Every structure is written in C-alpha cells, then in structure tokens.
Amino acid sequence: MSTNLEDLLQTTFHDQTIATHKQTGTIHENHTTITSLEVVLNDGTTLNIAAKTLPESPLFDVLQASLQKEINFYNIVAPTLQYFQEREDVDELYFLPASYGTNLNQSTILLENLKCQGYENVDERLNLGTTRQVLKDLASFHAIPLALKLKDPKVFDTKVKRYLSKAVSLDYSQVVLKIVKIVEEESEFESYLDRIKEKLEEVPEKALRAPFSTMIHSDCCLRNILVKNGDGTADIKLIDFQHCSYGSLADDLILFLYTSVQREVLEEHSNGLIEFYHSNLVRVLEECKCDPTPFSLDALLKEMKTVTSEGQFVHVLSVLLSLFQTKDSDRILLKDRILFVVKDFIERKWI
C-alpha cells in the first residue's frame, strides 16, 4: 500500500485508531486504479474500502479535473441533498455509495467497497423488476435536488448547481457515419432516411427549461449501475458522478431506458415504465411539499420529445456503440438494438 493511501486513512479515521489495514486487490479500468482495502478499527469494526486513484498518465490533468468534480459531489453536493432529504423526512438516498474521505492532492477518493456487499456490474440488459428499481431510484435522484431548487434556490445554486458540469458539444461525426450505414441497409427506413440523417447531424445547443431542469447523472447506463439481487428483489447503487450536470431529467430517463433495458421489456412495458418513473418523481416532490402540477405526465412526454431533438437521439446511439464490444455476436446485437431505437423513436414521433 502506498504511503499516500496510509496517510489518507489516518487522516480520515483520525478520531478512531486503526488496528490493522491491508490491501486485498487492485484493478485498473478507465484510466483509474481501484485498490481494495480492509480496515479494522480498534472497536472491532471492519470496513471494506475501495480507494479510487489516478495513476500518472498523459491524460492526468484532464482526469484530475474530472476527479475534482466527483470529489465535490461526495464532499458538498451529496451531503447537501442528504441533509435536505432528512429535513423533509423523505426516503434516504441509499443508492449512493458512502464516501469515507477524499484528497485531491493525492487524487484519491475512499468509497465503500460495494463488491464486498454483493453488488455487481451487469453485462446483460436489465429485466423488468430491476428496471423498475433503477427508475424508482433515478426518480429520487432527480426529485430531491429539484425539490431543493424549488424550496431553497439559494442553497441549490451555491451547494449543488455550481459544482455540476456544464453541457458541452461533442463531435458525433464518426457515430453518425456508423449509424447511417446501418440504417441505409434496411428498406423499411428508406422513406425516413433523410429525416434520420438530419436528426443525427443537427445537434442544437441544449436549452434549459423549467420545470424539468435538475441535477442529472449524464451517463446513466449499465456501466454506472451496480446491482445486488436478493429474494426476488434488486438493490441498486449508482456510481461515477464526475459527469453530473444541470440539465433535463428526460436525458437520463431516455438514455437509461434505451441503452440498458431488455428489448422485450421495452416492447411490452416502455409506456408503463415511463409512467412508473413519473409517479415516483411526483411522489417524492409531494413528500417534499412541492406543487406537482407543472410536472404532469403529458409535460414529461413533451420534454422527452424535445430533448431527443436536442441531441439525445445521437447520444443514445453513441453510448450503444460504446457498450457493445467488437465480436461478431455483439455486432449483430448492436445492429438489432440500433434499429429498434430508430424505429421506436420514429413511431413516437420523436424524430
């Protein structure tokens, strides 16, 4: 274990003596090193910790800027939302990992080790039950900061919004070429091809609109969702908050549904799932004593159509390209998924 990690552990648990600590594993992913630690305090408490650090690399400065955003989330944004949630006596934000400590100078965050608690990344698209649990948690993730904005806008602006990323324009040119090539091969889309190309190529700047602007995850898909399956139930943890931004909650909702849920589930239950998310959003707002009138289901559906025309269509397809690997079987699944998304968006008149 590095001296920096040992120093951070001592600083983090300064009021409790550490009896023993040991490193139990290390993995490297997405330019990040995750070190698994087992820490035993003098009172006998055992903590399984995941230390997220940045190794030296040509991208270090860029990655540290992202890490700063995640540190701000755990040190400032999450505690602000948790305090507000406790004040309003609504359900705890239990789907957020606990943070034990952070140090930007050491480029390190100490988080609870969710893998030791049985949480795992899921390679397959989610079934109906797990999808509903994610949507329930996602609704709370959106509704708590939204309620804070409505009830105490100054606190929201100074303790939440100022630490969120601003939307940036991305270069989707290579994505567009790949998607157009796939769609051109299907005769059923021939009459829609010009419209599809237009929606893919013209990505206007995102506009912030009331009432659905709130804190959003911005990358709410399989790679950032951990699942713990129990007796017919699933517990969820959302991870990786360096891209959290101030934007439309419909962006997260569309991205999650169309990249991370089984096609069969969407074909049979997509409208019901949108309604389920909406009912949980309204429930939390009402628990926070906010007027739900502006947040009708019709208004949400209109918002979903609007954000699709502002770039979420091509964003969904670009994330699908990144989630599927390069082996032949995945190429077939990728093509099938892309064509399903295009067809569904056309039928909904979103494109």
UniProtKB/TrEMBL annotation:
Specify the CHK kinase-like domain's residue ranges: 109-287
Q: Quote the InterPro entries the UniProt record gives.
A: CHK_kinase-like, EcKL, Kinase-like_dom_sf
Indicate the segments annotated as coiled coil, or none if absent: none
Return the Gene3D superfamilies for the record: 3.90.1200.10
Q: Which PANTHER family match?
A: BHLH DOMAIN-CONTAINING PROTEIN (PTHR11012:SF55), PROTEIN KINASE-LIKE DOMAIN-CONTAINING (PTHR11012)
Q: What's the protein name?
A: CHK kinase-like domain-containing protein
